[in-house]
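Predict the structure of Pyruvate dehydrogenase E1 component subunit beta.
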Amino acid sequence: MVATQFITRFGRANTLIHRSPLGQTVRRWASTGGDVEVTVREALNTALDQAMERDPRVVILGEEVAQYQGAYKVTKGLLEKYGTERVIDTPITEQGFAGLGVGAAFTATRGSEPRGGALRPVVEFMTWNFAMQAIDQIVNSAAKTHYMSGGRIKVPIVFRGPNGAAAGVAGQHSQCYAAWYGHVPGLKVVMPFDAEDAKGLLTAAILDDNPVCVLEDEIMYGRSFKVSEQVMKPDFVVPLGKAKVARSGSDCTVVALGRYVGLALQAAEELQAEDGIQVEVINLRTIRPIDDQTIIESVMHTHRCVTVEGGFPQSGVGAEICARILESPAFDYLDAPCERVTGADVVMPYAKNLEERALPSVDDVKRAVRRQCSRPGLEAAANRAAVLAGQS
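Done. Here is the predicted structure for Pyruvate dehydrogenase E1 component subunit beta.
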């Protein structure tokens, strides 16, 4: 089995992907059914509420999180329920309140047992663009303290807020920080797409003993998704570091981040209807650590890969995924070079028509997949089979 070969070579012990004869993928961390309609905003709010009810050490701080109930109403109702000592409005100083959160999260340990009364803060940034004011606290304090203390101090903190391009907010409010923070050892970084992702990933982030950056999307807060009842229960968790195969296919793998998962799914449906191309769509979910196993197994199955993200092309998440494929056993299975669909390599324009052209579109994804599938894949497969037959 391909999965067995991968684990043997790389020494991994992650849960395998189990494919049915029809190519469908079964993963225990995806909900089943769709009986409840929930917005991403409601899913995040529920995750925060349940975490605060479960653990009195969970506190929320940030600009307008209390009386105004959050710039995007994600913290709605929490001040009334938990009071001003646990839902805390801060001054407009990202470096200041991020530093307060990091210090409050420091948990000294003796052996494996925690000491002291440290908190588990959730720090909200009005936008991740403003978090650049706090990058020293996030990278040098939160991410590095566990390592630099020889494992004696844990930093269980969550940084969350909207990331990436919105609508008409121009260059200083439109950047994607997935690659920025995904570069840093000591951080975990997640990017939810739908309500299931938002609820499960934020819950997992708050439970984790490491600093976690949750990169949400302003455009997605009001979007509704059907989820099963289990998603809204307190014990539903999406494990960090595990991707989700959102759609099974056999012709090309598309790995997408955040709201661009929706773009990839739409492109996949249209490609099947128009060209009969079967696209497998992977919702990456976690930027750091990346789920290598799911991606590599899928590429071994489809022999092609396209990545889709809204960030800049240079040194992006897609570039990292392509590099990992080239350095893995999947390289020998490729029938075409990996291809990236990204945001344009420009400062985000303010004009609506230019803004639209600076971001990936469904047509961009379709063109990339068609280029992949127009390669001489059948001939390459036949040649590979002939070589293997000659060696036997």
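The longest helix spans residues 260-275.
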